[in-house]
């Protein structure tokens, strides 16, 4: 019996550099994704933070799940730099993760460099138009 279309969470099971960003999404590994993404040791995941201007620990739950394999979290905050809330920075520090918020473009470029250097890097990237 056919089920029809099955919708799954967006997930690319590998680490890959980001080839392009803009128009509300990202290109990587000969694929494209519309919306924001989390680049983690387990792969690249579709991501939808509840309020992009004020990230929470809940928004970064997958980051904390993989904290043992992450030293640096780059946070692409869109077109404008936004500081992370103090409580979130403290929680990241408790997990021994250094956080660095910056524009999404700068975060993509920095992520690609650190990934090429085989560093323990992750990125939370908010899509830009």
UniProtKB/TrEMBL annotation:
It comes from the Bacteria. SUPFAM superfamilies: MTH938-like. InterPro entries: MTH938-like_sf, NDUFAF3/AAMDC. Pfam families: DUF498 (PF04430). This is Xcc1710-like domain-containing protein. It comes from Phyllobacterium myrsinacearum. The lineage of its organism: Bacteria, Pseudomonadati, Pseudomonadota, Alphaproteobacteria, Hyphomicrobiales.
């Amino acid at each position: 019996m056919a089920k029809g279309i099955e919708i799954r969470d967006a997930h690319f099971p590998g680490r890959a550099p980001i080839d392009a960003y803009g128009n509300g999404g990202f290109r990587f590994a000969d694929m494209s994704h519309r919306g924001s993404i989390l680049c983690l040791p387990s792969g690249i995941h579709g991501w939808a933070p509840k309020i992009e201007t004020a990230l929470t620990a809940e928004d970064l739950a997958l980051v904390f799940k993989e904290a043992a394999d992450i030293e640096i979290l780059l946070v692409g905050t869109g077109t404008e730099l936004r500081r992370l809330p103090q409580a979130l920075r403290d929680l990241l520090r408790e997990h021994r993760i250094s956080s660095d918020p910056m524009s999404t473009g700068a975060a993509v470029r920095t992520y690609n460099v650190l990934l090429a250097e085989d560093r323990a890097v992750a990125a939370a990237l908010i899509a830009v138009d």
